[in-house]
Every structure is written in C-alpha cells, then in structure tokens.
Design brief:
The chain is α+β, with helices and mostly antiparallel strands. The chain has two domains: about 5-130, 2-Layer Sandwich (Ribosomal Protein S5, domain 2), CATH 3.30.230; about 135-195, Alpha-Beta Plaits, CATH 3.30.70.240. Helix content is about 30%, strand content about 35%. The protein has five helices and eleven strands; from the N terminus they run E-E-E-H-E-E-H-E-H-E-E-H-E-E-H-E. The protein has helices at about 30-45, 80-90, 110-125, 150-155, 180-190; strands spanning about 5, 10-15, 20-30, 50-55, 65-70, 95-100, 130-135, 135-145, 160-165, 170-180, 195. Strand 2 (about 10-15) and strand 3 (about 20-30) form a beta hairpin. Helix 2 packs parallel to helix 3 (about 110-125). The N and C termini lie close together (about 10 Å). About 35% of the residues are buried.
Amino acid sequence: MEQYPAPLGNQQFECEFKRSRFITGISYVEHKAQAKTVIAEIRQRYPDANHHCWAMVAGAPDDRYQQDQNDDGEPKGTAGKPMLNVLQHSGLGNVVVVVTRYFGGIKLGAGGLVRAYTRSVSEPLKEIKTQLIIRKDTILVKLPYEALATFEHWLQSTGIDVSEKAFTDAVVLTLQVPKTDLGALTEKLQINGGTQINKPTP
C-alpha cells in the first residue's frame, strides 16, 4: 500500500442514541504515543462523561502494531472492538477515534451498545475531511560536496524530503522517498557521483 487516506486535523461529531449523548472525536496521529495523548486530552475536556471509548489505526492501515482499542468501562467487546472494526474496513490510516458517552438513563444492552458505537464511528467517517498520505522509505545517500547544489535543486521537483544532513568527508543526506521516486533517485545519484548507503524495505 503506497498511499492511503487519513483524517485532516481534528474533527468532531455528535449524535444521540436512546437519550445517551455520543461525542465522536476523530484525529490525525502519526503513532500510538501521539494517539494516547489525544485520548488523554479528550478525557480532560469532558471529565464528567461516563465513558471515553477509543480505537486507533495510528500508522498505515496494514500496520497491525499501530492498531488498538479500549472499552473504557463498557461491557467487554461492545465499544472499542466494533469501533476498530469500522476503522479497519474504512481504509483510513493515521487515525484515532474517541467516542465520549454521556449516559441518558436508558440501558442499551450489549447489542444496543455495539450498534451505538459502530454508528458513532461509521456515520462521521462519511463526512470527515481527509488527506492523502504517501508512504516513504528512509534512504541515506552520500554525495560529493560539489554535487550538493544540483542535487538539492533536483529534489525540489520530486516528492522526496530531506530530514537530516551530515557533513563529513562528503555530504550524507537522510531522505524520505516515495516508492514511485526510488528509480529516479538511483539514476540521479549515478549522474552526480553519489551512492545510496542503505536499501529500502521491499
């Protein structure tokens, strides 16, 4: 998966289900730790709420390590799991969803909770604003000093970003390279007398 959609910033939606109020916060995150920070911030924003259930696909959609969920006191499997299931089938990545519930006095039962939390995620996902994330490999390249200006000028016409520079006997650049630009990078390095220090993950 070379590219995928992700939420644009932080977005909020609200609905009611049998008098219970459900506030859905959908946020862009880059990893699990950032997602946990977002969850903590929402807890502080609504300290009197009954539950703050959440689910995340905090990296690329196919990165299972970045996926997690929590029922936050609701019966096991009635909140976080159905929320995560919606996210997994949405194709979204870099996303955390927190559903804050204010109890309305009517018990929903296990089936009602599953439906409510599923809807609290699936309906907002039809409306959210998204951005396209292009997956990039981290590539280290080594260039002679005299080739740096020409190489950096060429980079401006690509989707390649420079995340770090080091100056030793030559210039070492840490690049974030879309897979679609790997071939052009190899060719440009050969022209400029540069070398690639590491290989991208297949």
